[in-house]
Amino acid sequence: MIAYEDILTWIRTFAETVAAERTYLTELDSAIGDADHGINMDRGMHAVVGKLDGIATPDIGSCLKTAGSTLVSTVGGASGPLYGMFFMGMGGTAVGKETLTLQEFATAFAAGIGGVERIGKAQPGDKTMLEALLPARDALQAAAEQAVAVGPALQLAATAAEAGMLETVPLVARKGRASYLGERSAGHQDPGATSSFYLVRSAATAWSGL
Ligand code: ADP
Ligand code: MG
Predict the structure, then answer these.
(1) Ligand 1 pocket, CB under 6 A
(2) pTM tops 0.85
(3) Nearest ligand, CA of residue 124?
(4) How far apart are CA 88 and CA 71, in angstroms?
(5) CATH architecture assigned to 2-206
(6) How far is the CA of 34 from the centre of ligand 1 (A)?
(7) How do the pLDDT tens digits run along the chain, 210 residues long?
């Protein structure tokens, strides 16, 4: 079982990771974008953590939705609405829930990706955050079907996300700012896929005992 407190720990761990990797994420974005991905994500996640401290009721859905709307309203770059829709999409499946099974978490995670796909309209292989999120989604679903425990399941998902992140290096970007570079976007790791790997790894770290 994943409890409300575990969701908070996940989000806080992600915020800490983004803060620690802020310069690296911005460096990745300077190669194929406008050098602000670390700054964007750190500003957004800092605001999210501040908001979560004020929530009184242990409702996972409303907590995730608050995280999403905070990202939309505090991040100017593409990643604000994209991560915003991810958390809002996740939250929509978990309204009124104080705990989630691994299957419920996998379903919520997939719904979050659905939100990213709806507003971003990216396809697999377009060199976006989906490159890390889609393999993680599939690994989570497979783990849930095989009744793997939560901690090991998230470890499998993080490994899948990391492989997807690394696979962005040779890809030519077809969405977002990096797509303006055309062929010259190849040879660089996608910043959004990197932060998305951190998102999944943060759950694996936070939930290693579950
Ligand atoms: P901006 O590009 O506006 O400066 P960021 O630098 O914060 O925003 O985020 C860039 C990341 O957003 C990219 O590395 C990519 O992973 C992701 N991204 C951009 N466009 C899309 C899209 N249409 N769908 C999914 N992810 C996208
Ligand atoms: Mg940018």
Answers:
(1) 29, 33-34, 36-37, 40, 77-79, 82, 116, 120-122, 128-130, 175-177, 190-193
(2) yes
(3) 1
(4) 10
(5) Alpha Horseshoe (1.25)
(6) 10
(7) 999 999 999 999 999 999 999 999 999 999 999 999 999 999 999 999 999 988 888 999 999 999 999 999 999 899 999 999 999 999 999 999 999 999 999 999 999 999 999 999 999 999 999 999 999 999 999 999 999 999 999 999 999 999 999 999 999 999 999 999 999 999 999 999 999 999 999 999 999 999
